[in-house]
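Appendix C: a fully annotated inverse folding record. The material below is reproduced so that readers can follow the format used throughout the book. The structure is listed first as tokens, followed by the designed sequence.
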């Protein structure tokens, strides 16, 4: 049983990756009472392990190890690193390393710098492998960790910087001199104005642009209530939200 993946950092050229085996403890994997700890994820394309696909680097990095010379045929008696068959290891920076193994062919050399999306080789079944698939492992400071959050963009490696944070909108400062005279129902033009769910809410729930109406003339904790339709002014439950009084001119 597998599942379709939605990856931000692809590992197969063209995407459409399918998860065939999850990271970590696999209960009764080899039979009743015979558990197995899987140190990476097994990936194929579209739940169809029938063709050799190009394996690509999910992150930029430097090739730190390459192992070749294994026939593209599973051999369940292999031990040690031979179990990986033909493989590539990338140093992705920040203590993160990426291993791709059971490859049919290898397309990179040790010491080579690769960009995210660069071909590393083709999917195969070399080494300790029972069928065509990509085994991908990610280690942090030498410890195998679940690769999926990193491939899905939910966690980041040094080579996959965190997405840019939204720019914080700083509300205008209100002083007695600039504080406007307020009237209920007064139309106010707002431009990317932070909108709060309450007078004392610490962070904005969003921002609004357009014409709004003062729900009342009251200022509470430096904020005023607005509504998005003149007909809703002063009616209970008809508040769109709160804005800093300095935004109302
Ligand atoms: Zn595996």
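Designed amino acids, in order:
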């Amino acid at each position: 049983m597998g599942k379709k993946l939605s990856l931000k950092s692809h590992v197969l050229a063209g995407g459409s990756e399918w998860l065939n085996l999850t990271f970590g403890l696999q209960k009764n994997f080899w039979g009743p009472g015979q558990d197995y700890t899987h140190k990476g994820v097994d990936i194929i394309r579209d739940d169809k392990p029938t063709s050799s696909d190009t394996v690509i680097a999910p992150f930029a990095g430097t090739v730190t190890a390459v192992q070749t010379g294994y026939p593209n045929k599973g051999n369940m008696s292999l031990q040690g690193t031979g179990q990986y068959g033909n493989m590539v290891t990338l140093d992705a920076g920040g203590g993160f390393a990426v291993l791709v193994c059971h490859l049919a062919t290898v397309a990179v050399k040790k010491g080579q710098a690769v960009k995210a999306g660069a071909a590393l080789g083709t999917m195969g079944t070399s080494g300790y492998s029972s069928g065509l698939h990509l085994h991908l492992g990610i280690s942090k400071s030498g410890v195998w960790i679940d690769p999926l959050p990193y491939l899905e963009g939910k966690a980041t490696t040094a080579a996959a910087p965190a997405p840019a944070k939204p720019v914080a909108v700083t509300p205008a400062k209100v002083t007695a001199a600039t504080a406007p005279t307020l009237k209920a129902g007064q139309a106010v033009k707002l431009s990317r104005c932070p909108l709060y769910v309450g007078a004392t809410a610490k962070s904005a729930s969003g921002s609004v642009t357009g014409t709004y109406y003062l729900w009342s003339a009251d200022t509470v904790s430096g904020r005023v209530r607005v509504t998005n339709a003149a007909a809703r002014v002063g009616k209970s439950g008809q508040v769109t939200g709160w804005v800093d009084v300095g935004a109302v001119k």
